[in-house]
Amino acid sequence: MATHFTTTPRGVMKPVAQPSSIVRKFPKFLIALAAYVEAERDAESDWATDPACLNWLRDAERARSTVLDQIGDITKEELDGLGDQSLKATAMLTRIMIESSSSSEFFKAFALLDTHPARFTCPEYAPARVKQMVRTARQRLADLTTLSAFVDPCEADPEADVVATS
After folding, report:
1. Of 128, 157, 138, whose CA–CA distance to 19 is shortest?
2. Which of 139, 142, 147 is nearest to 64 (CA)?
3. Radius of gyration over alpha carbons of the chain, in Å?
4. DSSP 6-20
5. How far is residue 12's CA from residue 9's CA, in Å, rounded to a whole number?
6. Is the dihedral of CA 45, 51, 57, 58 positive or negative?
7. Are 21 and 70 in contact (CB under 8 A)?
8. Which of 1, 99, 114, 132 pairs with 85 at a CA distance of 20 to 30 A?
């Protein structure tokens, strides 16, 4: 008769790693940010002045508040896992960019991605999923820079003001 016994001693198995709360919340932030960019693009279109499309402006405002709420949820969390620092820093940078009061402030904030790369990239040993989230967030931030809502025409081209008044 065979004797049944386990080959792995008790206490050797480690619990399965769980993602941190920031990693769990960040995909919702990315979805909200993408929706915000699309809503702003709709609001920028020529159709946005049509009374039938007034909801687009409301959608853009709603999407903006949703993104800011998601950022608030992320920034309240403690740093716990690998890559949390870069995810949290990216969310905070997004808030600065969205709430910027001028084009120069907006683009200075965006330039932080290149001037402080260590702050906005994951460590080499971070999970691939977290690295992908950071890459996606950088793409969404680049999408924000294409929106005219964040670019003051007079700040973008100082000569434009002179030409318009001449």
Report:
1. 128
2. 147
3. 22
4. -SS-TT-SPPPP---
5. 6
6. negative
7. no
8. 99
Exposed (0-12), middle (13-18) or buried (19+): which is 50, by Cβ within 10 Å?
Answer: exposed
Answer for the pair 112, 120: CB distance below 8 angstroms, yes or no: yes
33-42, 104-113, 150-159: range with lowest mean pLDDT: 150-159
What is the structure's pLDDT at 35? 96
Kindly list the distances between the CA atom of residue 134 and the CA atoms of 3, 54, 63, in Å, as whole numbers in the listed order. Answer: 52, 34, 21
What tokens does 83 get?
């890559």
Of 147, 142, 140, the closest CA to residue 41 belongs to 147
- Residue 150 makes CB contacts below 8 A (sequence gap 6+) with 97, 100, 103, 106, 144
Identify which of 152, 25, 155 has the alpha carbon closest to the alpha carbon of residue 90. 25
Q: Give the least confident one: 21-25, 95-99, 162-166.
A: 162-166
Answer yes or no: pTM beyond 0.85.
no
